[in-house]
Amino acid sequence: xxxxxxxxxxxxxxxxxxxxxxxxxxxxxxxxxxxxxxxxxxxxxxxxxxxxxxxxxxxxxxxxxxxxxxxxxxxxxxxxxxxxxxxxxxxxxxxxxxxxxxxxxxxxxxxxxxxxxxxxxxxxxxxxxxxxxxxxxxxxxxxxxxxxxxxxxxxxxxxxxxxxxxxxxxxxxxxxxxxxxxxxxxxxxxxxxxxxxxxxxxxxxxxxxxxxxxxxxxxxxxxxxxxxxxxxxxxxxxxxxxxxxxxxxxxxxxxxxxxxxxxxxxxxxxxxxxxxxxxxxxxxxxxxxxxxxxxxxxxxxxxxxxxxxxxxxxxxxxxx
Length: 320
Ligand SMILES: [Zn+2]
Ligand SMILES: [Zn+2]
Known about the structure:
The chain is an alpha+beta fold.
């Protein structure tokens, strides 16, 4: 059972709602956008476009729950997750991915008394902008579906040139649309580097219950996307650690991804890598680059999630 956002009674449909069936066809997204381009999208527009769907949003620090219309939530999360000044098609693609995640995970925090939290565990909202309201409105009510059910999608900051297969990180997330695909838009991006002494690495690993004295770090294996799947910690017990666990131990903002190589310079280990984040699903930086070279939201989404279709929520199995 996967479904869905609760609904609340709506007011009588406005003239605007009569336009919304036009959105049912993906090709209508562009036409609707140009019609609306000059008109700022208001909170009331987003509430009407939500058709009664709401998100009970829990604050990660206070636990306070705020109930907001779905499309307002989408506009706010696009503001939190998109690149600044991202082109329109990539903001629309992100809006659809964000709405899809919210729809598929609407019961994630049922035990906490809300739908989704406002931290990185779920999706992070910020203040909506004119552009993010536009992206939510232009794609309102549409999600990614696979074989008639809402897809279980994830997205990541920057894949570095090759996205990751979800099961490499989350063994249960076995879906054909979450497999590694090449992303040919990152060639001119510089790689990141990080240097740590063996002592610093050992200290960072101490919470991971290792014993012994670290004398070397080696890549033990890579997965099909080229990311480090296991790392060898010479001198420690246990000697092998999963690549993503190693990244988490050293800090996910330090080791920006597991797509790295290693060099040893005396007592120092230098990591040189590409991308930022787990790399699963849509790549937010790559989506922006694709939009800049003229790709549509539909093309962007089906590149990163092969086999999915943009579908109105109302057409999904079990939806209300
Ligand atoms: Zn959460
Ligand atoms: Zn990418």
